[in-house]
Design goal:
There is one protein chain. This protein is an alpha+beta fold. Strand 10 (245-247) and strand 11 form a beta hairpin. The protein starts with a helix and ends with a strand. The longest helix is centred in the middle third of the chain and has 27 residues, at 156-182. The protein contains 10 helices and 20 strands. Helix 7 (156-182) packs across helix 8 and helix 9 (265-282) runs antiparallel to helix 10. Residues 160-367 form the Peptidase M24 domain. InterPro entries: Creatin/AminoP/Spt16_N (IPR029149), Creatinase/aminopeptidase-like (IPR036005), Creatinase_N (IPR000587), Pept_M24 (IPR000994), Peptidase_M24B (IPR050659), Peptidase_M24B_aminopep-P_CS (IPR001131).
Length: 381
């Protein structure tokens, strides 16, 4: 990393933390504890620090901050914070670490510490016993929820990372189409391992989730189980491939369907309905449109054909594969698409006889409308 790049990232993380500090002052929170550990993952630690995984992050309303990582050397390479303290100094006990940092600040006045809203009750009680003099809070509608909501609208750097993930994703999609037509990809395992290798070759950290590859006999499942086998892929009929790649922490998420051979009228109808829902709903992925309107449009299209989609229409992506906002019939009427959101559009229909069809791409909401970042498609063979 060059000095210019490092300085840019320092400013980005500082700006994010400044927004968080403003919220803390508004609600009278002195210190916030974020935890990204094996039992309780929280991508907000990476969002506010750049550290990839396994750490406590303690942040104060005056913007002072401490990262307590499991791997101090990794933190020194990737984190953009004021203070790094090895977790081993506290025998890797979160309560001891938090107590030591909070007491080191010598803060006067009312002391309020907010824990992650997913903190187990027994651990919450341990914090209460440990943090004498502090009002320890763990609640719904917490600062941590506000932090997750902040992540719904991507800054320029995040959009840049997601675009890079999308670029690699598109390259892989094109190569997969070439290789299934040439016969070089023959099985579900071939497809999944090819994606794994290509994403690494192109500078990605990993796949965004375990790739889902389903031949015609298994594509009826929304998420096939097992994720992939040594069975043929694609098969005659409808086969599905769902994958994503992670670039500098940010993931893509796409699904393509391969329609191979002569299809039944029912399967052709399924493809037509999914493509129609995709095309019509894309028009609603734009600034100030209620998120629920897109979901309602998909339901309208499918219900007229006496079909129903068994999952939501889409979700935000970023540091996690599922983030706010969620494009669902459960979305409130007040929630609208906002420029900077990156959201999947993924209508799908599934049937035990005909198999499944899903078409999924990643959409950036812009001031002018939207930009389709990935170019997954229904491939005919």
């Amino acid at each position: 990393m060059t000095a210019i790049q490092d300085d840019r990232l320092q400013k980005i993380y500082a700006q994010r933390r400044a927004k968080l500090a403003a919220q803390m002052k508004k609600y009278g929170i002195t210190a916030a504890i974020f935890e990204d550990t094996e039992s309780r993952r929280d991508a907000c630690v990476r969002y506010f620090t750049g550290h990839p995984a396994d750490a406590l992050f303690i942040f104060f309303d005056d913007e002072k901050n401490f990262l307590i990582p499991w791997d101090e050397n990794t933190a020194k390479c990737h984190a953009h914070v004021d203070n790094i303290i090895a977790y081993s100094q506290y025998e890797r006990q979160s309560t001891r670490a938090v107590k030591a940092v909070l007491n080191s600040m010598n803060i006067q006045g009312k002391l309020v510490a907010e824990l992650p809203d997913c903190t187990p009750y027994p651990l919450f009680l341990q914090y209460i016993d440990t943090l004498s003099g502090w009002d320890v809070r763990c609640r719904e509608n917490s600062l941590h929820q506000q932090a997750r909501s902040m992540r719904a609208i991507k800054d320029d750097y995040e959009v840049e990372c997601i675009k890079n993930a999308a670029r690699v994703t598109d390259k892989i999609i094109d190569l997969i189409e070439e290789k299934i037509r040439s016969g070089d990809i023959k099985t579900e395992t071939d497809a999944a391992l090819f994606i794994e290798a290509e994403c690494r070759k192109n500078g990605c950290e990993k796949t965004g989730f375990d790739t889902l590859a389903a031949g015609g006999a298994r594509s009826f499942a929304i998420h096939c189980f097992p994720n992939y086998t040594d069975g043929q892929w694609p098969t005659n009929g409808l086969s599905i491939l769902d994958f994503g790649v992670v670039y500098d922490g940010y993931t893509s998420d796409v699904t393509l369907t391969v329609a191979k051979g002569k299809l039944s009228a029912a399967a052709e109808r399924q493809i037509k309905l999914v493509q129609k829902a995709y095309d019509e709903c894309l028009k609603l992925y734009k600034k100030d449109v209620p998120i629920i309107a897109a979901s309602a449009k998909a339901e309208e299209i499918f219900s007229k054909a006496k079909r129903a989609m068994p999952h939501s229409l889409g979700h935000g992506i970023g540091l996690e594969i599922h983030e706010e906002p969620f494009v669902s019939k459960r979305s409130s009427a007040e929630k609208k698409f906002i420029p900077g959101m990156v959201v999947t559009l993924e209508p799908g229909l599934y049937n035990p006889i005909t198999g499944g069809v899903r078409l999924e791409n990643d959409i950036l909401i812009t001031e002018e409308g939207n930009t389709v970042l990935t170019h997954s498609r229904i491939i005919r063979m």
